[in-house]
Amino acid sequence: SLTRLWPDGLRVAITARQPVVAVPQSSGTGYTLLDADAVQVGTAKKTPKDLPVVDLPLTGENQRVLEAVLVVLNGLPADLSKEVKGVSAQTQDDITLTLRSGATVRWGGSEKTALKAAVLQTLRTAKVSKGSKVFDVSAPSAPITK
């Protein structure tokens, strides 16, 4: 960004883009690293340990799905975000998260992300559902665990 400093100055601020997801390349030779705005910021030959892998081809028709996935990932609390190992989606309304613990979270669409995250945190710590392997928060007012 540029800012004019009166009377004779100019401030230039550069913010580096940071990768937030890794998407497998169609050639199978590695991963494309994307930032929060779905801008490619690099590539990797191996699966990055600290980034979730998004199981979604980078083609034009998947742009809306990718944007919905990024909205969800950007809206997660930091502690939950670190636990996301992978994300898959066929449409923008059927996002599924895989946690590093092996649990699956059926997220649904990108709306009500903060509420869904709060419900998930509660379900993961509640005595009755703590050991569940599947958490469905797609309808956060009526969550399901298995």
Summarize the structure.
The chain has 146 residues and is an alpha+beta fold.
Your description of this structure?
This protein is of the alpha+beta class and 146 residues long. 21% of the residues lie in helices and 30% in strands. It contains three helices and eleven strands, in the order ββββββααβββαββ. The protein has helices at 63-75, 78-81, 113-125; strands spanning 2-5, 9-12, 21-24, 31-34, 40-44, 53-55, 84-88, 95-99, 104-108, 134-136, 144-145. The strands form three sheets. A six-stranded mixed beta sheet has the order 6-7-8-9-10-11, with helices on one face. β7 (84-88) and β8 (95-99) form a beta hairpin. The longest helix is centred in the middle third of the chain and has 13 residues, at 63-75.
